[in-house]
Specification:
Blueprint: H1 4-14, H2 19-26, H3 30-37, H4 46-56, H5 60-64, H6 77-88, E1 103-111, E2 117-125, E3 131-132
Antiparallel strand pairs: 1-2, 2-3
Helix pairs in contact: 2-3
Length: 134
């Protein structure tokens, strides 16, 4: 079975586009295109999926069918919550609870309508599809 990364790369190459060309045509940052083609991005936002489909001349559902469903990972809510807390507190060297590979982490700093700071921990595994999105 073909992966999302392979599908996007093949479609792009068949159209004679470079990564930069696809980035410009789809209005998606080049770093995001590179992450998709390197297999680090496994689930795409709807807007990204639609923009890629338009430029790559395919249906968004073709791309969606190749995305990994990260919600079916069986990892306890307690483990996820403890990882989120560690990320917010700046812990480094965290490992993926699914495969043990290093986690890439960051904290998104967002503000609500009353201008209150809200911290959203985010992480993704360097090897498997595990992600913490919020």
């Amino acid at each position: 079975m073909i992966t999302l990364a392979e599908f996007i790369r093949k479609k792009r190459e068949n159209l004679g586009l470079t990564v930069k060309g696809l980035s410009i045509a789809s209005n998606i940052p080049i770093t995001e295109i590179e992450e998709i083609e390197e297999g680090r991005e496994l689930f795409l936002p709807v807007t990204v999926r639609q923009a890629l489909a338009k430029v790559l001349r395919c249906e968004p559902k073709e791309i969606k069918a190749l995305e990994k469903d990260i919600t079916d990972n069986i990892i306890s809510r307690e483990i996820i919550e403890s990882l989120k807390e560690l990320i917010i507190n700046g812990a480094g060297g965290l490992k993926c609870p699914k495969c043990g590979a290093p986690l890439v982490t960051r904290v998104a700093r967002l503000y609500d309508l009353e201008d209150n700071l809200i911290l959203h921990p985010k992480a993704h595994c360097t090897k498997c599809p595990f992600q913490i999105l919020s």
